[in-house]
Write a structure and sequence with these properties.
This protein has 329 residues and is α/β, with parallel strands linked by helices. It has helices at 3-7, 24-31, 42-46, 91-98, 101-104, 114-131, 146-152, 165-172, 176-179, 195-203, 208-230, 240-245, 247-257, 264-273, 282-286, 289-305; strands at 14-17, 37-38, 135-139, 157-162, 235-239, 309-310, 313-314, 322-323.
Length: 329
């Protein structure tokens, strides 16, 4: 089979996107427990030039014991869990086929080159074939990269996981991948922050929490702008807080949006392998009154637009588990 014929096999790939610490991992990994969805594994992340390694992911369908658990930041991973199979963000895979800028750039207004499109589609088609699944799903955190991804996969679906920005900032302040890198002092991604964001940073002495807050604001706003402009019918949002309260119905709505049937295995995976807890309350204990006021100032307008309460804080008031804010008839 030629690469061009292979790449034509890709049908409506599904991308879970959102700011880090927004709940993207638990929603995506539960969805990926379906038996009709392929995903990039840790093996593909380490050896991205060997798509045939996706065949190993079939083992996760044999018994739940071979499927990796979803880890929480306040839980240690089981001793042998590293040997089990499961989806990852697999940035090594995407870097190989899309280039290094895919990792560190907002990619606003950027489309894939002809060669990037060809090799990425060919690689994903091979993952589908070796994994033996009809649909492909992946997760990225940070900027949505929607325009870039649509230039490769024109029929892609995007599921944006949104969480109260103040809880996201609090969580980022605690996790090693944010604290132990330069993300406490400089933006995590290039070519995204606007003059207003930079002015807010300077006005608050480049505080690490302010840096995280303006990035949450810009990432969420840029994803929504791209979704509204480029994929109004292929873009949907899930509120983390609603998912924690109603995970089964949320998974059903995500499946329906992706033109897939409800799936018992995804719900069973969540029920048996992960303890859902809404951790949003922690930010109010982590920040003092002055810092809370700053966070409310920086994130309040967007929080209101998203259906959250600012002062006092409250869960989003959306009636549906899955929201399609820009859908057109």
């Amino acid at each position: 089979m030629s690469p061009s014929a292979e790449s034509n096999e890709i049908d409506r790939p599904i991308f879970f996107i959102g700011m880090p610490r927004s709940g993207t991992t638990v929603v995506f990994e539960a969805f990926a427990a379906r038996r009709d969805v392929a995903w990039p594994s840790q093996h593909l992340a380490r050896a991205p030039g060997v798509p045939a390694l996706a065949v190993l992911s079939r083992l996760a369908d044999i018994t739940p014991a071979l499927r990796r658990s979803v880890g929480r930041s306040d839980q240690s991973r089981q001793r042998f869990d590293v040997l089990r199979l499961g989806p990852t963000e697999a940035y090594g895979f995407w870097q190989r086929y899309c280039g290094e800028r895919f990792l560190y750039d907002y990619l606003l207004g950027v489309e894939a080159s002809k060669s990037e499109r060809s090799r990425t589609r060919a690689a994903v088609a091979k993952v589908l074939r070796y994994h033996g699944k009809p649909r492909f799903a992946a997760k990225f955190t940070g900027p949505g990269r929607i325009e870039y991804l649509l230039s490769i996969f024109p029929d892609a679906r995007f599921v944006h996981i949104v969480r109260d920005g103040r809880a996201v900032v609090q969580s980022l302040m605690e996790v090693p991948f944010w604290r132990e890198r330069d993300r406490m002092i400089k933006p995590a991604w290039d070519n995204g922050l606007q003059e207003t964001d930079l002015a807010d940073l300077e006005r608050h002495d480049r505080s690490p929490s302010v840096l995280a807050a303006v990035q949450w604001r810009r990432v969420v706003e840029s994803i929504r702008t791209e979704g509204a402009r480029l994929a109004p019918n292929g873009y949907a949002e899930v509120r983390y807080e609603r998912f924690v309260e109603e995970p089964a119905s949320t998974l059903d709505e995500v499946a329906s949006f992706c033109d897939l049937p409800p799936c018992a295995s995804a719900k069973a995976f969540l029920r048996k392998r992960f303890e859902l807890r809404n951790m949003n309350f922690q930010w109010r204990g982590r920040f003092g009154a002055e810092e809370v006021a700053v966070l409310n100032e920086l994130t309040g307008a967007l929080l209101v637009e998203l259906g959250y309460g600012v002062d006092p804080p409250r869960p989003p008031d959306a009636a549906a588990a899955l929201i399609r804010p820009f859908s057109r008839p």
